[in-house]
Design goal:
The chain has 15 helices and 18 strands. It is of the alpha+beta class. A hairpin with a 2-residue loop joins strand 8 and strand 9. The protein is globular, with a radius of gyration of 25 Å. The termini are far apart.
Length: 453
């Protein structure tokens, strides 16, 4: 189905350790459902399953033999059993599921989950793990009794990852988040920030190292649902204050798991990035926009080197960067803002993050320039207490170009052969190259670079 992904559903009944299947020409097969692409599979699966069969569920794991095969979602059933036959489902043992429904590896993985012997898999690929998690929460919350409702919003699952909202009868809801490879470093970064500057994160009530998980009290809503400039201005102010708080802590941040995006490191990758972009342009098939020629890419590379040197000359101290900042990673309770989702946390020039925030915020209004200017004014007003006006103004002029460089470089995984040839990433890289081309041509950048010649 176009723009959808079909999943086979391995429904597990936790008490009997049986599955739910459907009759098809004499065989019993796994039910199937299609979910929209580019959305969180766990959230879509649990929602569509409840709409289709009126069954509350929890996603334990996502199995897939290959990128082209239909994935299999392992689902723990959280509803009572009386209703299954009314929905066209029948209880069945794993051995009675037709051979075409499961591959050998998938059948073995399911068997290990059913038997409880899946020690090599995620702690969340276990029947009943949610009961253990709720007991952990009861232990962590000491100031009042926590009574959970049946409401669970499962946003992310599979492997060692989990993002789950648990509703309660009274008091706040709670969010459980856990991370695994290749994003296991987010656990260390989050734990460090929660220890040294907890007021800039949602309230973190407990941390569990064996799961690389942390428990958060729900904090308002994300700025995705806000069209208030005041909310974004508060975010810009808090971002500056957080970064100033962490000046001088680069070694600690790197040790916690942040990547190194200091200007020297970014500059050392410019030539490789330009070479890659030239390769990406050579593979362009669309005729809507002409590819950038190698001569222009080399000119952009030269300008990037100049911008890095100019930024270094400003002697702005490194601090924390949030290289995936967006309205979704900023939460507001109406009067204040906090930051979450620290997978793309780096140590480098702090003004780069402000530029990325301005890009996202400007999409919230038709007056994009006004919004961007307002956020920069707030950010500037905090930093001028620690830097000169000259440093702040020049950094704001140089940040747009360097923010694209930082965003493109990321954690350097574009260098890996498995990713650098992916059509989607090649297309995305070409769009970022054109964005750098426009910035490199801007009068504001030329003015900033002229100050250093």
């Amino acid at each position: 189905m176009d723009n959808h992904t079909e999943y086979r559903l391995a429904f597990i009944l936790p008490e009997s350790r049986q599955l739910l299947g459907i009759q098809n020409s004499g065989d019993i097969e796994l039910p199937r459902i299609s979910v929209p692409m580019w959305q969180r599979p766990a959230e879509q699966l649990t929602r569509l399953i409840e709409e289709t069969w009126n069954i509350r569920t929890l996603v334990l794991d996502l199995l897939c033999d290959s990128p082209i095969s239909t994935p299999c979602a392992v689902i723990e059933v959280r509803s009572s059993s009386w209703q299954f036959t009314r929905r066209g489902l029948t209880t069945v043992h794993l051995g009675n599921i037709g051979r075409l429904s499961l591959s050998g590896d998938e059948r073995a993985a399911l068997l290990s989950i059913l038997s409880g012997s899946n020690t090599s898999r995620s702690p969340f690929a276990r029947i009943g793990w949610i009961n253990e998690a709720q007991e952990w929460i009861h232990t962590a919350i000491r100031d009042h009794d926590v009574i959970f409702t049946d409401e669970m919003r499962h946003l992310n699952a599979g492997g060692e990852f989990c993002l789950l909202r648990l509703g309660t009868i009274a008091g706040p809801a709670y969010w459980l988040k856990a991370v695994g490879r290749p994003n296991a470093h987010e656990f260390g970064v989050t734990a460090y920030l929660a220890a040294v500057c907890p007021e800039y994160l949602p309230p973190i009530l407990a941390i569990r190292a064996d799961w690389r998980a942390w428990l958060m009290e729900e904090y308002g809503t994300s700025l995705h649902s806000s069209s208030s400039l005041e909310h974004f201005k508060r975010a810009a102010s808090n971002l500056a204050n957080l970064q100033i708080r962490l000046i001088g802590r680069s070694a600690d941040l790197l040790g916690a798991g942040c990547g190194d995006h200091s200007i020297g490191v970014l500059r050392s990758h410019i030539d490789n990035i330009i070479e890659y972009l030239d390769c990406a342009m050579s593979q362009q098939t669309s005729t809507k926009v002409p590819p950038l020629p190698a001569s222009r890419l080399n000119e952009i590379g030269r300008i990037l080197h100049e911008a890095c040197s100019a930024m270094e000359d400003l002697n702005i101290p490194d601090s924390l960067m949030h290289n995936d900042i967006s309205p979704g990673s900023i939460l507001t309770n109406g009067s204040d803002c906090v930051f979450t989702d620290w997978c793309e946390a780096y140590v480098g020039n702090p003004f780069i993050t402000l530029e990325q925030l301005c890009v996202h915020a400007s999409r919230k209004s038709e007056s994009s320039q006004y919004w961007s200017s307002a956020l920069k004014d707030v950010y500037r007003s905090v930093w001028v207490e620690n830097l000169t006006e000259h440093q702040v103004e020049r950094a704001l002029q140089l940040a747009p170009l360097l923010s694209v460089l930082s965003y493109l470089h990321g954690r350097g995984d574009w260098l890996e052969p498995s990713r650098r040839t992916q059509p989607a990433f090649l297309s995305y890289s070409r769009s970022l190259a054109r964005h750098m081309d426009r910035i490199a041509n801007s009068a504001e950048l030329r003015e900033a670079l002229c100050q250093f010649k």
